Amino acid sequence: MSSAQRILLVEDDPSLALGLVDTLEFEGFEVVHAERGEDALQAVRAGGLDCILLDVMLPDLNGFQVCERVRRRDPRVPILMLTARGQEVDKIRGLEAGADDYVTKPFGVGELVARIRALLRRATRVSALPDGPFTVAGKVVDPAKQTLSGPGSREVALSFHEARVLALLFAHAGEPVTRDVMMEEVWGTEASATTRTVDNLIVKLRKKLEASPDKPQHILTVYGVGYKLVP
User: Is the pTM of this model over 0.85?
Assistant: First the structure.
């Protein structure tokens, strides 16, 4: 049985797909190719994927829709968006849909492979994060469903990044987690996240989790460092 890491390439341009398959196989990866979004989702359901390269422009579903559906099923598999778009709003939309990183066409294959390997290394490091429900402030966080619920309260939706930040903080409960670690483990070092991105997300989480968001009891600021969770 092959021990090669398995990559799903979702790309409808035959010539580009052929070149990428050849390059990735030369680099030692096993490649599954899908031309349509629905075919990609079927490959995800089959399992066994280590990374997804996902084109934005597809003939049926667009890449953002595919990314969101993948994330509802698998919050951990690394997703790298391939896009010809250069607008900042499209990059942000991809990251908010749950992508870990993106490259804009045309791109160098050396850069692409380096980004894939970086995502795979990060995926290995975050494997210790809880993938099942856990409790914070008397409320149940479900990372897979991206929900927060408590006794007598309605279920609240979490974004992909909110769920992952909570899981990261819970994995290090009682210990400070730096903003740099949060950016690397949640958004990836190549993405457009900044320390302000982290701070803004924490504000949103406190509004969903804390009884008094302006006087947090569970997601605490460690000044000059980052944040820590007191479950």
Answer: no
